[in-house]
Specification:
Blueprint (H helix, E strand, L loop, with lengths): L10 H12 L1 H13 L2 H7 L7 H8 L3 H14 L2 E4 L2 E4 L1 H8 L1 H14 L6 H7 L14 H4 L5 H26 L6 E5 L5 H9 L4 E6 L4 H10 L6 E5 L15 E5 L7 H14 L5 E6 L8 H18 L8 H9 L3 E10 L3 E8 L1
Parallel strand pairs: 3-4, 3-6, 4-5, 6-7
Antiparallel strand pairs: 1-2, 7-9, 8-9
The protein binds S-adenosylmethionine.
S-adenosylmethionine (SAM) binds next to α10.
């Protein structure tokens, strides 16, 4: 891959970056609050003229002291400029205010990860999601998705959907180039992919396989779209060998699914899928691999998201390098027959067959 090969920073820039990192959790919380309190919007609206501290406090109806420390923190982070006691918007403030991806990522980090990450070291040493207790008492986050607090649940779904929503429309023509009659969506979550498949191809029959509690969301989506005669559900914990893996499908779809598991579990799941596949069946895997990203920022986002899996989700999975997953496929009696990078923007679609 073309980046992460050399250290291109000057020593001066590296020294400065180290201090930014030391205070990054504070700058993160401040930036969110500047956004959510309306301070960023008020300053943006003031244009080139800018606003004084007193004007910001008056417009947002917040105490002067609180606004003062927030503004000065944002100034240090680079969200604003300050001239003649007036704050104006800098480019960084503009993107925090207007880029939906900032809100999606920052809400996920705040509502799902932030408190739990305090216990990262315990997770790393013991291979357990030590921070999950800050959300609820489950073995993995997947067991508790349907019981998360409304705020954490909203942020989790917004995060998950933000990325797969971009990839699904681009993946549809690739999957339906040779239209499957029966498609199994493993880890189908709220049913978004199943609905898009049913709308894209009027013949295809879809089954969503997911954990029993999680299927409540899929059932709701199926009813809302009146697709009961085209989309079925199949409750399963794919890690439980006693629960039969569904058979007889032309295509099996796994989107942002295998990253929920450690490598040994991935191999176990893929072997089960391979055994359930007919000779000519196709397995499609849609994943955002960090080594296949168009730039370092996208790769870095995925590398950081891995720590959510370490500390919150299950203690053993991550956002993978493509070679990790391809190795698991090979060890499971499967081979990649086609690869498509930048599906949507960040995903790779692996089309696989039995060896
Ligand atoms: C990150 S979501 C991906 C959702 C969807 N496929 C997408 O691309 O947006 C992972 C899904 O896998 C399901 N899942 C996790 N562990 C599972 C297991 N052991 N058995 C079955 N489903 C599981 C979760 O409930 C969730 O719906």
């Amino acid at each position: 891959m073309k980046y992460f090969r050399e250290d291109s920073r000057t020593a001066h820039a590296a020294k400065a970056e180290a201090q930014r990192l030391a205070f990054a959790p504070i700058a993160f919380q401040t930036s969110r609050l500047l956004l959510n309190s309306g301070i960023l919007a008020a300053i943006r609206a003031s244009g080139r003229l800018g606003l004084t501290l007193e004007a910001v406090a008056a417009k947002t109806k917040l105490p002067r002291y609180g606004v003062k420390v927030l503004l000065e923190s944002g100034l240090g982070t680079g969200l604003f400029c300050l001239n003649d006691d007036r704050y104006t918007m800098a480019k960084l403030g503009h993107f925090i205010l207007n880029d939906p991806m900032f809100r999606v990522n920052a809400d996920f980090v705040h509502d799902v990860c932030f408190r739990g990450l305090y216990d990262l070291e315990k997770s790393v040493r013991n291979g357990i999601p030590a921070g999950l207790k800050t959300l609820g008492r489950w073995k993995t986050v997947y067991a508790g998705l349907s019981a998360l607090s409304p705020k954490a649940q909203q942020s989790w779904f917004n995060f998950d959907h933000h990325y797969s929503d971009r990839a699904f429309p681009a993946a549809l023509p690739l999957v339906f180039a040779l239209p499957p009659k029966k498609l199994l969506d493993v880890g189908g979550n709220t049913g978004k992919w199943a609905v898009q498949c049913a709308q894209y191809n009027p013949q295809v029959q879809i089954t969503i396989a997911d954990l029993p509690r999680q299927l409540t969301f899929a059932r709701k989506t199926i009813r809302q779209h009146k697709l009961q005669n085209r989309v079925a559900v199949y409750p399963i914990d794919v890690l439980a060998k006693s629960q039969p893996f569904p058979q007889g499908y032309d295509a099996i779809w796994m989107s942002q699914f295998l990253d929920c598991f450690g490598e040994e579990q991935i191999i176990a799941v893929l072997r089960r899928a391979a055994r359930a596949m007919k000779k000519d069946a196709t397995l499609y895997i849609l994943e955002p691999f960090w080594d296949r990203q168009a730039n370092e920022t996208a790769a870095n986002c995925l590398q950081q998201i891995s720590l959510y899996f370490t500390c919150i989700a299950n203690g053993s999975s991550q956002m993978y390098h493509s070679a990790d997953l391809i190795r698991c496929l090979t060890q499971s009696g499967l081979k990649v027959v086609e690869e498509h990078d930048h599906v949507g923007e960040y995903h790779t679609l692996l089309k696989c067959r039995k060896v």
